Amino acid sequence: MKVIRDPIHDYIELDELALSLIDTPLVQRLRRIRQLGFSNLVYPGANHTRFEHSLGVYHLAISLTKQVDEHQQNELQAAALLHDVGHGPFSHATENLIERYTKKGHDEVGGLLKKGAVADVLSEHSLSPSSIAKHIKGETYPGQIINSEIDVDRMDYLVRDAHYTGVAFGLIDHVRLIHELRFNENKLVLGVGGLQAAESLLVSRFLMHPTVYFHHVSRIAESMCTHAAGYMIENEGLKPGLLLRMDDVTFMMELRNSKGFPADIAKRLDERKLFKRALYTGFESFETDILKHRKKIKRVENEIAENAGVEPEYVIVDIPEKPRIIEMKARVMINGKMTPIDKASSLVATLEKAQLDNWRIGVFTPAEYREKVGKAAREFFEVKKDVKQFKLTEI
Amino acid sequence: MKVIRDPIHDYIELDELALSLIDTPLVQRLRRIRQLGFSNLVYPGANHTRFEHSLGVYHLAISLTKQVDEHQQNELQAAALLHDVGHGPFSHATENLIERYTKKGHDEVGGLLKKGAVADVLSEHSLSPSSIAKHIKGETYPGQIINSEIDVDRMDYLVRDAHYTGVAFGLIDHVRLIHELRFNENKLVLGVGGLQAAESLLVSRFLMHPTVYFHHVSRIAESMCTHAAGYMIENEGLKPGLLLRMDDVTFMMELRNSKGFPADIAKRLDERKLFKRALYTGFESFETDILKHRKKIKRVENEIAENAGVEPEYVIVDIPEKPRIIEMKARVMINGKMTPIDKASSLVATLEKAQLDNWRIGVFTPAEYREKVGKAAREFFEVKKDVKQFKLTEI
Amino acid sequence: MKVIRDPIHDYIELDELALSLIDTPLVQRLRRIRQLGFSNLVYPGANHTRFEHSLGVYHLAISLTKQVDEHQQNELQAAALLHDVGHGPFSHATENLIERYTKKGHDEVGGLLKKGAVADVLSEHSLSPSSIAKHIKGETYPGQIINSEIDVDRMDYLVRDAHYTGVAFGLIDHVRLIHELRFNENKLVLGVGGLQAAESLLVSRFLMHPTVYFHHVSRIAESMCTHAAGYMIENEGLKPGLLLRMDDVTFMMELRNSKGFPADIAKRLDERKLFKRALYTGFESFETDILKHRKKIKRVENEIAENAGVEPEYVIVDIPEKPRIIEMKARVMINGKMTPIDKASSLVATLEKAQLDNWRIGVFTPAEYREKVGKAAREFFEVKKDVKQFKLTEI
Amino acid sequence: MKVIRDPIHDYIELDELALSLIDTPLVQRLRRIRQLGFSNLVYPGANHTRFEHSLGVYHLAISLTKQVDEHQQNELQAAALLHDVGHGPFSHATENLIERYTKKGHDEVGGLLKKGAVADVLSEHSLSPSSIAKHIKGETYPGQIINSEIDVDRMDYLVRDAHYTGVAFGLIDHVRLIHELRFNENKLVLGVGGLQAAESLLVSRFLMHPTVYFHHVSRIAESMCTHAAGYMIENEGLKPGLLLRMDDVTFMMELRNSKGFPADIAKRLDERKLFKRALYTGFESFETDILKHRKKIKRVENEIAENAGVEPEYVIVDIPEKPRIIEMKARVMINGKMTPIDKASSLVATLEKAQLDNWRIGVFTPAEYREKVGKAAREFFEVKKDVKQFKLTEI
């Protein structure tokens, strides 16, 4: 048993299984992947890594797994520690590419757990990689602890991200949430005494989105990075699967050592010469259904670039996925009935819709192309005449 | 210039005007009035007073008043310091009575400022008591700093109440709010960069309501106290206006030294033998419009008591005012237009409605009468058959 | 099992024994005794009570008592909850008087535990009042948890006092201290891994002394209060034992309702017309051994008053007890040997001596007598000519 | 004017000069140098960088520079922002090497400021690189703000390092320190009201040393890194001056891409296969003056290695510099006299000596050589027979 110091949870106790898993390259690699990708360009303190986040998730999971038998406890604690090994360099910057080319989300990690040092450790402890992989996807009922609307992943990262960025959201009442979460008929259910704590968690997440997670500067840096990596996959034979072995450092080196577009992007990121917003506005600004363009975004970018007369790589169209309706709704136990949380709370019910307020469509391009790309993008999307660009005053 | 230490704002600088006002009995009395009345029965740390809150509000007001001329600055800073002098003992416990009998809300303090030591200080500084009184009511445009939807009063008390109760809500980004609040066409307007901070403040307030401000235990103690004081006004010649001179201590002594019902209530409060909930449920449980009973609540209590066969004083019906639509909506500046905040934010738009989720109607009575009073109350209000009593699991 | 919210320890679980003890008048009275007496005249936030402090001490004791058997656990937890019931109104303001007239320190509470509701609860749980009283005095070896150089009392109050006053000391690493404290040969011993945490605790306490606990304003208010109460005992037949039943409120009422000197003091405390410093300086300013005057302080006050030509009650001489050498030194386990902490740490070794730097001798009197009383006091004590009065710049 | 968010100081305002300096490669490089080198191997949260620390120092300097004229203000603020540009990769890990080979401490940055983008910015603002370099060394009297016993560097890093490691020391009362620091006769002097705050700062630093800064794990990793770099300088032609252009990433790449010893060290650091402690004990364990070995440490390592029969590179002898007597003592103004702080405070007076308690001499080697290298080292140093190895229990 070893105890380590964590700024969020004070002390985290690690048992032998945890220590063995931590010592594998799969987990050690997370030390070199920043939790928030390029957010440190906006929030200089945001240098924390997926490694410490994973320890935090493990720590929270321990309290919640007391309700299941010992074998499942071990499985779930391993799942907590391993839940992020499917992330590529700069976390979300490479997520889309990995999904596009490997057809696997960052939580589909079964393949990674079945080989190498992690597989050995799991086997020594008679734990099944595929069960753990299912827990990580939230496909089992106790796996909801790790992956559902109110899970230990979220409980950790909201507080942690607030601690390192310094933003004034993200106070979560872990003790009460954990005290009120329990299993009922194979489902994770929240006692009614935890309703306000859950509302607070979901609102924190809601507020973190525009302020941190979708801040335009990190969004621009991320999409520049994504484009550069995509370019290398398409044109320079970079194997998409390799991204899962790289960390932030080796990936940036890869970009720097390449030629042409990716090298230019690397230079721009290093020198903070980021692309700028040629168009940046909300859903309501579009006459048409903007989302239909998501599937053929490359063609859209090319067309706008052509109309504007710039190289196709230097136009980035960013249409974030529409806030999806979460399938695995949290349930609250009210008067003996399991009630979906959005029925139990008008506040939660509104969050999904409210998220649209903060969703922004962006077209990014180097400063010198800003005007002509902006014009071409507005024409292409037939942006409403009278809508001025929404301006987020930065403090 | 003197500087004092405050747990919320670190250091608060006090100039000569502030020091003179603080030294008056009107402000010193606030040292002995707890900010949260009887909440310390639930949250043992909640012993903070209106005095320190007033210093906090003054401190925040200083940053916001830099936009107006010096004379107005002084007026507004005085208003900030004096905004709570109209509170009676245990703050909200006596507020209804003062309003009922003096026809004045706790923010109608003109009368108090026109005499005594405060009047002298104001006159020495050539400040007008009636202007200050108007600022406190939020009736002037710069007074909106002190009394409106997003004001320094709220900015202070949310954080302060969270600090002393220990609840995990109430993180407010003061710096950003103050940075984004400005006057435009004689109205207090929030820059769009402060939208998330404002949403966070309003949600914090929303979450504090059921958790702290309307916790049933403090609500019960408060209404016991209100009833005892009402009894003394009606039957023992207590002058309602006198409440504004009493503090928590002298008021409790008054109760203890009385006879009959008020003395019994004092004993119960001292020994924590509080009334219990005979009925406690949400608006949706009532077939009829429950609010119509608010005006003749005494009659309702009497009838339920009679039906239950208990003394009329020992039935308390608590129908809190319905969350009212706030007239003085905060405005956000979006693309050069002043937009009401509930138009700019779907989250804020929902808060008013969502508050109803947490609103509870209560009938309180001593433990031994609980069953029969509960039955009588349910019959009287024709509570829906199938609604079980909503049970807030306390942690 | 009930759980309550505490700003310092988040949540505190209370078992049936604790709940029963809390419901006794002896413990409830602590709700109305401020932890820091009159410190709220300096730090407006310092309104916290011995009640919440006692809950905090109980909470910390639970972790430490896991090492002893269940019966002792219960005894020690009861001792933790009850350790402060021997305090009179305003804590330290009446402590000297109670000691002088009852010959009992505030931790000699055996008599209080043997009668009334507390005795009943203890008897129901087969717990011995006298054992508990011994634990509270630290006379048993597991009682060192509660009363020794590094105990749960101190671990709680340092953090709590810092939280409510807002001063920037008092960060204590509870987890590590509790992790490293253990029993060895019937002694409480600290593992070497807890040395820095212990140093930090002892330095925090050291820094809190001049800043909070011995701030001259609270010291003046306290000694005014002590003098008024002493006067009532000597001249108006107030029974000293009665102080242990009074709380802050009933005691102040007693003063207010008296006549002559105590009534004047009550008025001065209510209106913040405090005595001022006629002399205020460190030990090094005196040619002679200033401490010899402690035993006949009344005579000293009278002589100074006579020389100055003022009424004897209006001169207060404050010679605080010299920082005593603590008998029950904490021990640290180094290389298998129990080492006194001042041998293990040069920092701790110096603290005792360093405390003298901050020790102040004061002579207090109303503002209008300041000059003549100052002169008389300097003459009486033969204060060195060249020593100017040490001036603490207040921020 | 731009405002950025910082977890320590909330918001930091940056004026045009600061923004221009930040945009230079010299400052941007600090984004990629971790403040605490390899401490994140012990404290997983310690990933913060010299970049954000520099912003924090700049922020604190602004408050303190209000006392000097505008030109000096600009110089000092530039100095604050630039004070750490002389650090090499992993901060202290390469510091010794840079000093040894370039004969320049990390605060001797004059050469760096006289060329390139920084020089251009300074020249545009009519600021002198050499004046700024002197401020950074603390050689001018206003430069004491930046480099002396109580300076803004220390005020920032103590709090920042505590925030990211999570240790419970490092609460600093910035406001009071800044309020009490002023210039008197061309010296930085602290008002007596800041004495406790200064004591607290110096004790925090004292406690951070064994807990964080000299934790054996980071000390081992650092010295491995120093040895590898030294090897490359001696044997592979690495230019020492180049270290000042590298960041953590490029330096690690350099090691990884080398051969032999440095490549092995890189692998060990990446896989956390660190050297272990063959000897680890305090000064008092040595019969002879251990410090005399500092000058010819290479020879000592070789001799121990030879005696133990291992390759010379694989023995690291770590004799940290003896806590030196600080020349530039802080002064406190007491009764109108400037008094050295160690005369004004017995606590401070003891700190220098107390530091020796925590000083550890270490001999580090791979796990498999531990025993034989330990034996050889003990013989070489003639370690007292009866001294068992001091064992820091890790939590």
Automatic annotation (TrEMBL), chains A, B, C, D:
InterPro entries: dGTPase-like (IPR050135), HD/PDEase_dom (IPR003607), HD_assoc_2 (IPR045509), HD_domain (IPR006674). It holds the Pfam family HD_assoc_2. Keywords: Hydrolase. CDD domains: HDc. Residues 50-158 form the HD domain. GO terms for biological process: dGTP catabolic process. GO terms for molecular function: dGTPase activity. This is HD superfamily phosphohydrolase. It comes from Candidatus Methanoperedens nitratireducens.
